[in-house]
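User: Can you recover a sequence for this backbone? Please restate the input before giving your answer.

Assistant: Of course. Working from this structure:
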């Protein structure tokens, strides 16, 4: 069975030029690193998949909000 899981993440370049991506899956922090933004996000995806395989997918709540 497969399921789409939406996980917010951040990406920033550190002082050494390495791209760092970070997300939380439940209470677990996941990190990805790479020489480019895309490499860091791909590395983060791999880390997220490992956490979900071990712990299961997080519960999700979908809401719609009006923003100004």
């Amino acid at each position: 069975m497969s399921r789409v899981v939406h996980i917010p993440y951040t990406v920033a370049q550190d002082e050494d030029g390495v791209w760092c991506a970070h997300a939380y899956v439940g209470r677990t922090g996941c990190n990805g690193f790479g020489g480019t933004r895309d490499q860091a996000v791909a590395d983060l995806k791999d880390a997220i998949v490992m956490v979900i395989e071990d712990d299961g997918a997080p519960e999700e709540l979908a809401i719609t909000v009006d923003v100004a």
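That completes the design. The chain is about 30% helix and 30% strand.
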